[in-house]
Amino acid sequence: MMRQLFIYYRIPKADIALGLTCAGQLMDALKNQGLGSGELFQREEADKPYFTLMEVITPATAHADHIEEFTRKVQIQAAASFALLPNPPSRHVEVFSPVGAKGSK
Q: Of 21, 26, 48, 78, which is the most exposed, with the fewest CB atoms less than 10 Å away?
């Protein structure tokens, strides 16, 4: 079943350039390790001191049926990728399946 991870977190505006670099490194690492692919989205919070980033990550076929293990591997790689930030972000992970997919309601 095709599932995707939706991971969002906040990066202080002062750290956004480094935060985007770290997020890009994570996306590259997932692809290079054959774990999956991802897209990165951002939203500027005009009245807040941070940007909200959203990663949409699709597991490679080999990892699609083991979503808990895949999610753990993504989080381990994220910890390494964001280690350069003075305060690595707290990442909120949600897993979604397409409507009509086996097991969804």
A: 48
Stretches in the chain below the pLDDT threshold 70: 1, 101-105
pLDDT of 103 reads: 52
Q: How many Cβ atoms are within 10 Å of 95's Cβ, its own excluded?
A: 15
Domain that holds residue 29: 4-86
Distance between CA atoms of residues 25 and 28, nearest Å? 5
Q: Which of 59, 47, 54, 74 is nearest to 11 (CA)?
A: 54
- Output the domain CATH number for residue 59: 3.30.70
Predicted structure pTM score = 0.87
Four-point Cα dihedral 22, 28, 32, 37, nearest 10: 120
What's the Cα-to-Cα distance from 21 to each of 15, 24, 55, 99, rounded to whole Å?
10, 5, 13, 33
